[in-house]
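hi!! sorry for the late reply, been swamped w classes. u asked for the two structures so here they r. pasted raw, havent cleaned anything up. first the sequence of the first protein and right below it the tokens
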Amino acid sequence: MDNSNSDALVFFGATGDLAYKQIFPALQALVKRHSLNIPIIGVAKAGWTLDQLKARARDSIGQHGGVDETEFAKLSALLQYVDGDYSEPGTYTQLRQALGSAQRPLHYLAIPPGVFAEVAQGLAKSGCAKDARVVVEKPFGRDLASAQSLQCILHENFPEPAIFRIDHFLGKEPVQNILYTRFANSFLEPLWNRTHIASVQITMAENFGVQGRGAFYEEAGAIRDVIQNHLFQVLACLAMDPPTGEATDAIRHEKARILRAVRPLGRGDIVRGQFQGYRQEAGVAADSQVETFAAVRLFVDTWRWADVPFYIRAGKCLPVTATEVVVSFKRPPRETFAETAPGVVNRFRLRLSPDVVIAIGMRVKLQGERMEGEDAELIALHQPGGEMSPYERLLGDAMRGDQSLFASEDAIEAQWKIVEQVLGAVTPVHFYDQNTWGPEEARALIADPGGWLNPKSGAV
């Protein structure tokens, strides 16, 4: 497999929700910012025409960023459409004809994992997989066994360097900023270890529910939906060692290495919750045991992180929508100033969304004669504007053959191994009121003196 650019883009599921919300806006951005000028072929079974696909693309872009008439005209001229069943050989015959002289297509499977096998085999039998790349969407399996089965299916038809497992979280500018901040600033490295760090908290809070996707959420739950993938990747960015060399897979190797060192979760390491009212959602079972909130306690068994707890939680119908990391440092070995209520002292806070914030918390002296202090933060705030969307970035990388921001096979398997013993209803689900920080039982999971550190609304 060479590093030459893909000369065609095929996306299966062209009439679906993901294409509408993410792919079409990313395609216009790629045309505008990167001068994308290759055949773009949508494939679906909807009984549509090419004009209907173009109308869908216009509506999608209008709802998600705005139509640039000049760039949309260029995109529209590149669009083609193949209508057919994924199980029918004729669909792939049509696709091969639509590809024309293209020899290195990129196939994006924006479809349920259950039809990956059919599509991969159809591409291979028709010759469309030769010298091609393939992008697959999460969820990559439902557990370790199903993930390994999917790996085998893909490897039957594509070599590993041609497989791109997309997790859009890895394309987010703030997530990349974790790595950059860590490894571009030398003052952090001497402190970034068990000698100085007491604990790490990662919170992904959403102040909305399942938004009409109850049937989907019944199959996923918070652990499969965001913890096993998105938040474990954030953990890897925080805990990994510096990558060695400049190879595109150097970062992926370090992430996989650190994820393999994470101790598998036991039943005592997790609290699952469900917001009041979830069972009344359409598509949700009346006695559902699916978690809409989960909190876990993890340990990374390496010299750098031995005995440092990593606390991760994610939930819906919480008070705010924000994703935030807080690294708490240990207190000084003795109290120099005899304050009756000593403060937190030092924290390093990274807000990943909705705004990008880097904050350093420290103890500063209050005005007056007495040696007493208060907790304060030095804050660097960046308001997003003009950045590439995750899908624009990731699709562009995939067409160039750059796997740096895509999950590797061994990392995905390591992530499933961490949660393997706590998937499903193996622990009780506790109810919590909407607009609260989850069930009370989650408080007992964390040993930090200050408990869970809740993100505030707004930038700070």
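now the second protein. again sequence first, tokens right under
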Amino acid sequence: MTAAILNLNRPLAVPRTTDRLLRQQAALAEFGSFAFGESDLHKILTQAVRICAASLDVPFAKICRHRPDKNDLIVVAGCGWNKSVIGRVVSAADESSTQGRTFATGESVIVKDIAKSTGYDLPSFYAEHGIVATVDVLIKGRGGPWGVLEVDSATARKFDRYDIVFLTGFANVLAEAAATAEQIVGLRAVVQQTQSLLAQKVNLLAARDEAERLQHELQAELLRTARLNMMGQMTAAIAHELNQPLGAIGNYIAAAKRTLASGDPEAQSRLPSIVGKAAEQTRRAVDIIKNLKGFVEKRDSARTSVDLGDIVRRSLAFANHGALDECVDVTLRLDERLPMVTIDAVQVQQVLTNLITNSIEAMRPFDKRELLIVTERGEVGFANVTVQDTGPGLPSEVRENLFQPFVTTKDTGMGLGLNICEVLIKANGGSMSLVDGLAEGTGFRFSLPLAEAS
């Protein structure tokens, strides 16, 4: 018997019993209820072939899915077949096979007697399973042909129009259920990926917060350690600073004692003035000690409006106590018209002390030792401070990583000074950079916010 393409427009020739039609419709409804409540595509396809085979009273059914990348049809589900068929048998998606012709033309194909069919390449497993008759209908997906639904009989069987109507309706439901299941799987994958990304985001934010906390703790401890390390260098400067008010206090007390001992009423009338001057020097000594204490202690930044020139002079006194012995020629060009700056005076003093000390040490091997400190207006709302020396300058490899930690030109240095200086200047609302284009030596410039708009 030869193959035939069914013409659905031809009048029905063989009536079917009402009971069988109702049973097929019930099977279709049962499958639809199951398929649209299930998201596992494999379960949907497996249930589909079982219901189809049972509804048409045949032992075999299978579903072939199209693979666009290979343009073939592979058996993805079936009932009645041995293990060598499902997931293994592949046929071309062209008119060389029954399922290929259905897929290529969209028409249902019926082979009433395989033994008499000469128009198709029938696979060997048909004979192994004793297949006599077969029928294929197209599974048409939302975007085009999805695959082929096929039922097979091991006995002579005439598939009529009612069978084709049932299988076609079944294939339509199957196509929609498969598309829905794949869409659900895709949505679940998106949801899982989104949940995974959200979890990663939460973990990353927590890790970032912890890293920032540790960084702030390390930075605070590093600044405190740097201040402690500088104490050795500053001891002589502090002693020099305190010697003056303490010596003056001693002189005023001695003068007060002599005045009291003299018994001279005119001389004793000057006692309040002498005691007041001693008190003034005492306050000066207290301020020096308080400044040193704040410099060493770990504490929060306290920004106030101060005179920038005064900060420069105080820093120079700290750092330059030995400069005269080393014949360093210090030049100050301080703009006395500058408004006050809003800074943490102790932190900025630390920066200036570090820069000045570095310059003095850098110039030590040279005969020409000139240190220039300049204050001037910078960009709108800022004042600039420049510290420049006539030392050897900086090597190119140091310039490239200048403010990174552990970069230094000193044999015994840790390379933390400039890094700490930049951190402190940024903490005070300014910025710090290397002065380019100098004919000799090295210069650093940093900006600080003015207390009032310029």
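hope this helps!! also noticed smth abt the second:
The CA atoms of residues 168 and 282 lie 107 Å apart.
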